[in-house]
């Protein structure tokens, strides 16, 4: 019981330190940044949107004009976190903050347990857990969530695989299988590849050592338990394995790997070793560190652990410990361009040519360093008096190094950039030399404190705890100095980001059917959201920020003229002009290509060229239903012709006309084209993949059984005599079942985006409503504004700004909430007009061209924005900004404010 209580206390202290050390994330002060917002969140968000709408996310229609989401390895479709989070409410900014902290806790706990397995010292294990959770790898890769996930599971995989071979218990086969599954499905694939080699080495170590001891029965037991673990892993990873083999021939990156020159270009110079003692220095002076991404050059593990690691090299360890250290350091060496390790591994080790950044794998080296440091501390703390001289000497040597660095940088130190009243500005504007002096001074104090504690340990009641406290202060301070650069975005509050994200339409309403070419990155969403934002707004786009791309999609990028012509269409379009691809090869950049022109492979062209087709201006279609894996439209055409859908023609998609299957042809390298008969028809596109769906369900069922069993097993031995091992797993199982039923039960569906917003923000609930009085606008004596017979406003090319409303805050009349602006636009051309809202000097805009579905008819447009708390005298303005001097008509303008 005492051991259990001490362990709980250690975990609790680690939890509190992480919570405080990452307070900007823990307490939602600032938003997370870069790839975590641009890649990780959008993909997870899309998964949860699909699940909560009752769809398995086979297909993502919003990126790359359609991509097989289930086969994209950077979208961890088969990782349990996604389905669990989706059932619990889905992804958002707050969710990612919570998950960020959870994975830090998992990482620290795993490192604590791995360390304790070797040294049986909770003080040493606390040092290991804290050093790991605040390491330069974690801080540097704050945006790379897949690396954080990998770092969280690595210690658990190593620990339970060692236990599997040491203790030879079936329960450890199950634990190893589950943790390996979590790592393989949730983390960066290269981390799993490297882990495979480490596990093979550990396996042969135990196999050979057992054979040398002539324990034949134990050898057979080790082999048997490894087979069991392999079977568990294969069953859990089955959908991932199937989807990977299915996509191999469709994407070049998986089949061809990464070029050596490209990966060597990201090698680091030896100067990045400076980060072991001064990680703050890596944020400046790029030339010194080889102009490498600053996330990859932070190797910090803490000065105090570094002291004990250096000492550990002079003490004997077990063969297993040396195996982990040597392996980790070899992998770590792949980060550096002055070493031949990366090139050697690339040429001679299978799968080492499949990833770009060697530095992404350095966690194995840092983990080994931390483990050795903790193991030596466990030895040191048993008799501090006997062991105190060596750590004091090493600390003095490091103090001398820090002093030399301070002296070398003092000439470049100046307080002219110092803004003591603004910490954020101070951290951003410091020079390299200032960074060195500031952190070197602080680190010197830490080392001096360590020397004092060791030297006078007899006068200190709890010297071990004081050293842990020193380490805590050190690693938290180091993390805070680098946090603004690689983890958090100090310009944007997490609460505002969540509020802006909440404006997006839920589920899968019929998207606004604008031209795809208009859905670019400009004015796509609210800052700092930048890339992949059409997943949030539910519009089709060609661009995406992703390392995954089908060969057919990438091929279209080689023909910019054709690409621009194709994207100058709506989601569906009619054609009667076709050519063979051979006619295209000599005019890759030709901008004169007709937007309705279709290019087919020779075999398809020969089959289709003799068919009589003709388009007519009266031809039309209407989208009846839109979902990730099924789209239904109704068409009305005067003649037979070709119907093209701007979605990738990936294997597995089927087309039906009036419920009868018809062939889909690939046009323009990438898109779905069918032959459409004349008259009125219902056309349906559908994707099904029973292999993936069945294997996914099987994987999740097996995973749930494993978790329920492991939980019951743990409770049984923890609380013998009680029924907790039955009741708690049963309650968990019932809860999961109820959440699944709740999420997959019928939900109200909104037919269009406009209907969704009308339902979310009904006019009767508005705190303020105003219809635009056109006579008021007319009294402005702006001759470029005119009125049609039905009172609509005609905007002439001379008009730059069309004011809609101006509200002045007074006595808190304008409450925080949501601004909703609706209108109707009539235009004969795709006019570049913005709806703009402005509060003081902060403005936001949205392109009207993204909402024009048809020329020469009235189009509904909508604009929504969160309104923050406004101070007295602040002004809220809404207007139209006529960017390219267009002529259009506007009518039925309505401005509504909804309080929070």
Which SSEs are present, and which pair or pack?
Elements: H1 2-21, H2 23-26, E1 31-32, H3 35-52, H4 80-88, H5 93-119, H6 122-133, H7 136-140, H8 145-167, H9 170-186, H10 189-212, H11 216-236, H12 238-247, H13 252-256, H14 260-264, H15 303-312, H16 319-333, H17 341-348, H18 363-382, H19 384-387, H20 389-410, H21 423-429, H22 432-455, H23 463-486, E2 488-489, H24 494-501, H25 534-537, H26 551-557, H27 560-567, E3 572-575, E4 578-580, E5 598-600, H28 602-608, E6 620-627, E7 630-637, E8 641-648, E9 653-657, E10 660-662, E11 665-667, E12 671-676, E13 679-687, H29 690-718, H30 724-744, H31 753-760, E14 768-771, H32 774-778, E15 785-787, E16 793-795, E17 801-808, E18 817-827, E19 833-839, E20 842-847, E21 858-867, E22 875-882, E23 888-899
Parallel strand pairs: 4-5
Antiparallel strand pairs: 1-2, 3-8, 6-7, 7-13, 8-12, 9-10, 9-13, 11-12, 14-23, 15-16, 16-23, 17-22, 18-21, 18-23, 19-20, 19-22
Helix pairs in contact: 1-5, 1-6, 3-4, 5-6, 5-8, 5-18, 6-18, 6-23, 8-9, 8-10, 9-11, 9-29, 10-11, 10-16, 12-29, 15-18, 15-20, 16-18, 20-22, 22-23, 29-30
State the distance separating the first and last CA atoms: 50 Å
User: What structural class is derived from the secondary structure elements?
Assistant: alpha+beta
Overall outline:
globular
Q: What percent of residues are in strands?
A: 15-25%
Radius of gyration: 31 Å
Poorly predicted spans: none
